[in-house]
Each structure stands twice: as structure tokens, then as C-alpha cells.
Specification:
214 residues, UDP N-Acetylglucosamine Acyltransferase, domain 1, eight-stranded mixed β-sheet, five-stranded parallel β-sheet, 19 strands, 23% helix, globular
Length: 214
């Protein structure tokens, strides 16, 4: 009943109420998110009231996402989170780093504007559609994570992760493919109908048809 009401036009009022409650109750999952870069309301996106967003105007979050408790999203140099991405609690995504500049400027570091700091890392981060970021994972500046990936709990991602990869560790290394994990479910009608990448399903069905003809 509650889900039916939320998905109806009344859902906008429910979301407004939840956003107000989030100011007073923590941790609290807030349904509905106003995405500043596009000016769109993401009705199916859920963001924890304890999630910290740095430079929110540069954080582009897609529809149907989940941002868990006590996560940090740094949009100072651009952060794009694709549709259906889930980010578990205690995760950190960073688009800048002062790990070099802090030594170069010593006591005067705070006096130097970000744009003029030598050794100050600035690089956008992108997470592809329907990827999953495990609890406590850290994603560093400049990283691009492909579509349909899984980043293991506690992993530190320092380089690009291709589509449909499973990556774990510090630094994160590719250990498998989510396609190998998913394909055993492709025989289910609902999975075939709803899988986020229908091109994968078409390839699977064509391959299955060819094998039955042999």
C-alpha cells in the first residue's frame, strides 16, 4: 500500500516530508532526490540522511540509485553516478586529493586557492549504470567504473574498471565477471524481460537458438 502511494503523484509530497524528517532523524533513508546538475527530480533514488555531499551541484546522480549511510561523495571536480547504482554505507568517492600539495605548501597550504595549488589532484569520477559499490569501498580521483560492475567491500579503486567486472582488494584488482554470475539466471522470464542491458539478453538468446539448431 505504501509503495503504491509513493509511486502515485502523492509520492512527491511523501518525498518532501521524508526530506524534512531527514534533518532531524539520522540515519534515515530519504526517498526522492533533487538532482542539481540536470534539474530533475529522481523519484526512485534513495539517499541516506547521513550521506555527505561535497559540491552537490557537480554530483550527477541517476534514477533508481541507492546511497548508503555515512557515505562521502566528493563532487568538487565532477562525479557522475549512473542509473541504478548502489553505494553501500561507509563508502568514500573522491574527485580531489591534497596528498602531494599539503607537503609542498606546508603551513601556507590553507592560504593557497585550490586552483593555484601545485600537486593538487583534480579529476572527475564516473560510475556506470547498475554497478554495486560494496560497504567501505574507496574510489579515488579520476577513476571510471564501467556498467554492471561489483566493487568488493573495503576495496580501494585506483584505476579504470571495465564493464561487467568484479574487482576487490587494495588496490582493487579484477577477479571475475558479473556476466558469469548473471547468465545462470537468464532462463528466468522476468530476468530476460527486465535485465538492464537488453543487448546482452539478445546475444544470449541468439546463442541459445544456434546451439539448439546444431
Amino acid at each position: 500500500m505504501l509503495r503504491f502511494l509513493y509511486l502515485s503523484p502523492i509520492g512527491y509530497l511523501i518525498s518532501f516530508g521524508l526530506n524534512v524528517l531527514a534533518k532531524f532523524i539520522t540515519p534515515f533513508m530519504v526517498y526522492g532526490y533533487w538532482n542539481k546538475p540536470t534539474g530533475n527530480f529522481r523519484k526512485l533514488t534513495r539517499v541516506s540522511s547521513t550521506a555527505v555531499m561535497i559540491c552537490k551541484k557537480k554530483i550527477n546522480i541517476g534514477e533508481n540509485c541507492w546511497i548508503g549511510h555515512h557515505s562521502i561523495l566528493d563532487g568538487s571536480n565532477g562525479l557522475k553516478i549512473g542509473e541504478g547504482v548502489q553505494i553501500a554505507g561507509l563508502s568514500g568517492i573522491y574527485s580531489h586529493s591534497s596528498h602531494i600539495a599539503i607537503r609542498l605548501y606546508g603551513k601556507r597550504y590553507i592560504e593557497i586557492p585550490d586552483s593555484k595549488r601545485v600537486g593538487y589532484i583534480r579529476s572527475a569520477v564516473e560510475i556506470g549504470d547498475y554497478s554495486f559499490i560494496g560497504v567501505g569501498a574507496i574510489i579515488l580521483p579520476g577513476v571510471v567504473i564501467g556498467r554492471g560492475c561489483i566493487i568488493g567491500a573495503g576495496s580501494v579503486v585506483t584505476s579504470e574498471i571495465p564493464d561487467f567486472s568484479i574487482a576487490v582488494g587494495n588496490p582493487a584488482k579484477i577477479t571475475g565477471s558479473t556476466l558469469d554470475m548473471d547468465k545462470k539466471y537468464f532462463g528466468e522470464p522476468r530476468v530476460r524481460q527486465n535485465y538492464f542491458d537488453q543487448e546482452i539478453i539478445r546475444k544470449y538468446q541468439n546463442k541459445k537458438t544456434k546451439s539448439t539448431r546444431k
